Amino acid sequence: MTSKKNVTAASLAAQAMGWIDPVTKAVVPPIHMASTYQRDEDNGYRSGRIYARADNPTFDQAEATLAALEGGAKALVFSSGMSAATACFLALAPGDHVVVPKVMYWSLRNWLSGFATHWGLAVEFVDTGSTAAIAKAVRAGATKLVWLETPANPTWAVSDIAAAAEIAHRAGALLAVDSTVATPVLTRPIEHGADLVMHSATKYLNGHSDMVGGIVVVGDDPEIAEQMTFLQNAVGGVQGPFDSFLALRGLKTLHLRMKAHCENAQALAEWLQGHQAIEKVIYPGLESHPQHDLARRQMDGFGGMLSVYVKGGEPAARRVMEQCQLFTIAESLGGVESLINHPAIMTHASIPPQRRESLGITGNLIRLSVGIEAVDDLREELAGALR
Questions:
Q1: Which domains, and CATH codes, for the chain?
Q2: pLDDT of 204-213, one tens digit each?
Q3: Which of 60, 178, 195, 243 is catalytic?
Q4: DSSP states of 31-75 as a string?
């Protein structure tokens, strides 16, 4: 790992901690495919490696780079964002109370309202964009985890991490933040008091839509780090070595890609805000966003995700999507290519319509994952689709 002092995060990521293979002097780390390691003659493991589910040298650099970028003491790679997120809840005990967002990643929301409640967690969904709502929900001594997703998918509410951390810690709870959309380039939750940070590495960290993975970064609590390390091994949700390699490759260009995502999304949001076919644009970089001032204080950019409400209801939204080519109709987000998504009939279709609409996920809502293409091309396509 690099020993250079005062290196910026962008340089640290581009060089992936400056690691050089000690044997070959290669600047790109090898992919270790071995599932097990040889024991010493005295039955020991002086190499420090025992079994690939618990440890793989390919993990080391990706984990160390993410820990450094987030300002955490330890990072752990998982097989998916879901396995990383659920590990944070599986570290709790049946009967523990948790506070989570009403609007959040749909798969985790389904897991919390289904498996987690049946397993015994007391799950309370609140508007985590409101500090007052978090304070009202948290129960001293009973609440063990407050979970934020900021900005929250797909309505992009921004939560006050520092205020939530103060509330959680005062009640004896931990604060965990899903920072997938912000990435460590835009927000570093540990600096604001968070104990855990989770990323779906499938999204911006990888950035090329060619792997699935998750990462949990732990602050400075050795006990929490030990518990998460145990779960990574015991539950078995570890990342494959090739996916870990791809995650590290993506991290090297993260800062450049996020700059392009932010610039393109801001330009499109400002243009769409004045379009006659659009009812409303939701993007933290717009002054019309309810938490715009908070986003300016807490973030170093506003990200590549925005949502729009199209005039004409669900039929109009469907027509817009059908006219797009540069914006591919697909799940997921955060890749270099632009994607378009209709949450009401795609990601959030399993939520009953009345409850879904109460969350702001109506039939005319379209979610845009803005890529790094030429923004003029993206604007021209949307103009034609909206026409």
A1: 9-251 (3.40.640.10), 255-386 (3.90.1150.10)
A2: 999 999 999 9
A3: 178
A4: P---SB-PPPTTS--TTS--BTTT--HHHHHHHHHHHHHHT-SEE
